[in-house]
Write a structure and sequence with these properties.
Blueprint lengths: L4 E5 L5 E5 L8 E3 L3 H6 L4 H20 L21
Antiparallel strand pairs: 1-2, 2-3
Length: 84
Amino acid sequence: MAAMFEIVELENGVVALRKVDGEGEPLVRIQFSVDAIKSFPEEHLEIAKAMIEAGVIKVGELSGMEVESTRDTNTDIPKNRTLH
């Protein structure tokens, strides 16, 4: 069975890729500077999602695995909730 991951915004504002069950450390964390968030207050979540998705796709290509995206365009997600 394939591992399932989710992109979440943690309470500290860091965007992370972690296992759906929430166990273990996140595989990836993206932390934007205060200036970056001020420059793109609404778009920073969308930018983080695109960065993580690009990385996951590349890992799939390099490992020969097929990566399925379940991307949702909704960015009105409360803190510590799944972004997609």
